[in-house]
Write a structure and sequence with these properties.
Elements lengths: L1 E2 L2 H15 L3 E8 L6 E8 L31 E6 L5 E7 L16 H31 E4 L4 E4 L2
Antiparallel strand pairs: 1-5, 2-3, 3-4, 4-5, 6-7
InterPro entries: FAR1_DNA_bnd_dom
Protein name: PROTEIN FAR1-RELATED SEQUENCE 5-LIKE
Length: about 160
C-alpha cells in the first residue's frame, strides 16, 4: 500500500484504528542524517509494549499513588517508509491485538462518545447538587429529636 505523504499514512491508520476500536500511538521516527527529514515512521496501538518502571527507591511519593499501566504488550503496528520516488510505502503491518478492542454500538469509537459521557455526568452532578440543596433547606426547617427517634418539621 502506498501513500502520497507521511500525514496521509498516519490519517489512514488513525481512521482504521478508530473503526476497529483502538487508539494510535506514534512510536518511532527515523530521520535522515543529512537533512533531518523523516524517512520512516512506526505507528501502533496505544497498548503496545510495557510501561517502564520509573519509580525511585523511595516510591512514587507521599501525594502520588501509582497508576496502573495502560500498556499490555500489544504487537499491532504499521511501519511506513519513504521510497526513492517520495511515496510512503507500508513495509510492515501487524494487525493482531492481544486485548479487547473498544467498539461502540455504531461501530465507531470516537472522542464524541467521551463528550456525551461527560455531558451525562455533568447533568447527574447538577441533579445531585439540587437534591443536596433541597435537603439542606429541609434540614433547616426540621429538627431531629434523637430521644424520640422521630422527625419534627416546623412548617
Amino acid at each position: 500500500m502506498e501513500f502520497e505523504s507521511e500525514d496521509a499514512a498516519r490519517n489512514f491508520y488513525s481512521e482504521y484504528a478508530r473503526r476497529l476500536g483502538f487508539v494510535v500511538r506514534v512510536m518511532q521516527r527515523r530521520r535522515s542524517g543529512i537533512d533531518g527529514r523523516t524517512l520512516a515512521r512506526r505507528l501502533g496501538c496505544n497498548k503496545q509494549g510495557f510501561s517502564p518502571n520509573i519509580r525511585t527507591a523511595a516510591g512514587p511519593g507521599p501525594d502520588k499513588k501509582p497508576r496502573p499501566s495502560a500498556r499490555e504488550g500489544c504487537k499491532a503496528t504499521i511501519l511506513v517508509k519513504m521510497d526513492k520516488s517520495g511515496k510512503w510505502v507500508v513495509t510492515r503491518f501487524e494487525k493482531d491485538h492481544n486485548h479487547p478492542l473498544v467498539v461502540t454500538a455504531s461501530g465507531f469509537s470516537s472522542s464524541g462518545d467521551k463528550d456525551k459521557k461527560i455531558e451525562e455526568l455533568m447533568k447527574e452532578l447538577e441533579h445531585q447538587e439540587h437534591l443536596c440543596a433541597t435537603y439542606r433547606k429541609l434540614n433547616q426547617k426540621c429538627k431531629i429529636f434523637p430521644a424520640v427517634d422521630s422527625l419534627w418539621c416546623l412548617m
